Amino acid sequence: MTRNHAEYILLAEFDVDKGASLTHQHPRPVPTDEHYLAELMLPDGAHLRENDWTIFFLNQEVPPSNLAELPYTDPDNDEDNPILYVLNLVQTRHDREARRGATVKAMAICTRHRFLDQYKHILFLALENYFTSPSIEVLANLYDAVNSMDLTYMPKLSNHEKLILRFAETNNMFEEKFIEADVAEITGLQENMRMSRVGSSQSELEAEARKRHRRKTYIDLSSGQRKDNITSKNKDRHFYETEVFYQSIKISVKIPLTIYREEVGEFFMNKLITTFANGQVSAPRPLHPHLDSGSPQPHPLILLINALLTQKRIIFLGHGRPSGEVANYVLAACALGSGSGGVLRGFTNRAFPYTNLTSLDQLLEFPGFIAGVTNPAFEEHPQWWDVLCNINTGKIIVSPLLANPALAAAPLQDLRKSIEVTHVKSLTSSSSSSGAKKDAQVERYGTVDAEFIMDLMAAIGKHYGELTIRTKIQNYIRRFVLLCALYEYQTTGSTDIGYTPQSFEAHPHPSGHSPPASFTSQLGFGLAFSDGEAKLRELALNKGRIEGFIGTISYEYLRRDTQAFLEHRTIRAFDVEHQLVKLRDGRHYLADDEVETVFRAFADAVTTEAQVIELLSHLPQNEGGLAPLAFGLLHASPQIRYLAVRILNRIHQDRTGSRFIRSLNVFFRCAYDAQRLQFATSANVNTTPGGNSTGSGSGSGGGGMAGFTAVGHPVYQSHSTTPPALATSVSGLGVTTHPTLSTSPVATTTGLTEGWNGQGPSASGYVPAPGFNHPI
């Protein structure tokens, strides 16, 4: 069932005699108390400002005490979301003829869409019209205009595709998914386009249709084919562009395609961080194991994150500030605790971006609420909250009435001993070369927390974009979740929020041989540590907030989401994230045989398009993209270089993967082209003039270079033995000529040269990367 874009349109007014009152509701009454709605739409102090944008939520349900009864909704399906997001605009018009010299009215749109900021323009116009002509027809026109917005052709992206697009540095990622929408736009099939032409003459309509239907062409140099240029190359595919017509005014709408479930509205994480990063925590205050992760004086931001993760009741107080500004702090806090919405969820279900004393009873029914208020009376009642964040002063106050729970004892002896590990010793070794300021931060807040805070503040100081800040927060919360899974596995022997040895399915080798029993244990899974002492130390330092997180609403959602992911994942033989962290992080030393095991696992397991997409979702372009795998092209071991070529070839056969290949820097692309050429040439060493291989056997892994030895190969001449995988054989190696070197024989090998341009086998064998000249 497709829902309307706008569920309700509301109009509230302030009456001198009655106070705040709800005047109109269209198309039907909202099943919520009218006085409650009117109080939210006309926030405290609204009469002091000409305009004030406010966001609040409706249809929130108090979670059951037994979390097993918590309703589960698909995180990728907004249709399952029961919450209504309300964008409200209140305006004050000064009028000498009005009582008290001013008129205050507010209009709101209730929607299930999280991109509320896209409705600001049309809501502003509608409220202007209502001041001019106060009637319910204004609400009806607004309702019809919003619901006429055409999203028929908006691409439906999977979770992995959203991750890829969110961090894509190019604007044409998944361009092919927009073809249907662009064709509709070009041929003038969209309903709103026809509506905009009402009143035009027939000749004008025909001329416009011919103009829009005229197709441009270009020559595809890679295939020599003439192609229709349907899609626009100037559009940013991070957004779906459409439009709304309101009273003959065309309003452009850009719908973000990559926002997470917990990202609502337009807020800035930088503002939340800078407000409280330089503030202070109230002192003296009661120590609490859920809030003090490894330090009696945690950084204010870390304390706030801990409060969010452990489901504490949090108030953001902004006395004298616009309610919309306070609401943005709440929305940013939801994203902060959830890892920008990409790791955890359940925060917006208990969030009240703006509330007041009228709804206090309802607020206190929600465990772990996150609320924004402007009334200073809240600060005087610590029994109402656990943590209060004063926006005006940047100060975070912990309620003296916050109960201090008893922590459960860890059953493992090594975990108990880790609590006694000397903190200073480990900190000295990890930060001896980073300067006195870093040493002080690390000693005070702990290694991981200190590095996170310093990295975050450095990024803000260098004016990095909002996405970069949110990505760092997402990585930090993701690491915490992995640490929770490790803690559960260490203390109970199992976990429902992460991988266990039983989570993996043996992936048979393409040659038909089963992998060794130690394959999974050698690859590893979960959070990677440089050594065992570091693992035990971090578990001990985070024990308090981990046990505070277990049993929360977010934990229950995480448990269910993890089980759904494990059931539907496409790469089932190993933990993809763990392997990439080992390759990416220079603190983890890997021997050559370990590196080879990792690369062989990727080469054998990533064969289908869905598996390529899942792999690419772990390789965000804004964090280096394919670099962890591309470094294999520069490895001293020829076997690892060969496996790297196999992996990149399979990635390049996918349309999305080919864009990742093109985004490699020039050094990696040089190495890629050179290694492909060398391996293809070596495969041809033992072929007959007729093009038939002297070896025998069958192909290996859809990209295996079989049927040749290393004899005469310059890369292998210094090696006494031939790499095992390169000594296998494949039949049917054809010989062709390098397109730029007429005397260089090149092998056309299935999986190595096929699909170079994502269009099937190459007609000329080896083809260098698109738009790139081979260095030879």
Question: What's the topology here?
Answer:
Blueprint: E1 8-15, E2 19-26, H1 34-41, E3 51-58, E4 84-94, E5 102-111, H2 120-132, H3 136-147, H4 159-166, H5 179-187, H6 191-195, H7 202-213, E6 217-220, E7 225-228, E8 239-246, E9 249-256, H8 269-277, E10 280-281, H9 300-309, E11 314-317, H10 323-337, E12 351-352, H11 360-364, E13 370-373, E14 387-390, E15 395-398, H12 413-418, H13 423-431, H14 436-445, H15 447-461, H16 466-492, H17 519-523, H18 532-541, H19 543-549, H20 553-568, H21 576-584, H22 592-605, H23 609-617, H24 627-630, H25 638-653, H26 655-662, H27 666-683, E16 734-737, E17 745-748
Explain this structure to me?
There is one protein chain. The chain is an alpha/beta fold. The chain folds into five domains: 140 residues; 98 residues, no CATH class; 142 residues, Rossmann fold; 177 residues, no CATH class; 155 residues, no CATH class. It contains 27 helices and 17 strands. The strands form five sheets. It has a six-stranded mixed beta sheet with strand order 10-15-14-11-13-12, with helices on one face. It has a five-stranded antiparallel beta sheet with strand order 2-1-5-4-3, with helices on both faces. A two-stranded antiparallel ribbon has the order 6-7. The longest helix has 27 residues. 41% of the residues are buried.
